[in-house]
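tool_call: predict_structure(chain=1)
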Amino acid sequence: MKKILFVIALCAVAAGCTDASRSKFTAFGSPHEVQCWNYHQEIYHGISTGRVSHDKEGSSDTISFEDAGTHQLVEIMLGQSSTCVIKVKP
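tool_result:
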């Protein structure tokens, strides 16, 4: 009986999540393609080794990740004119 209640509760929670929430959870640890622009000029295009972190601490707005090609930490500070598109690699 407990297993049935657990499955019902799990289905209710899963049904209540948005597609974006489920996608964020399933994409954890997957490589991501990152493209960033500043004033319509591309300033970065690369692949991460895994999760991309987005930190909005205080007045800074930064994304950080490990570059798959160089295995170095990449930190991109976003400003008012900066845009980044982050997509999970298939």
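agent: Residues 14 and 85 are 27 Å apart (CA to CA). Proceeding to next step.
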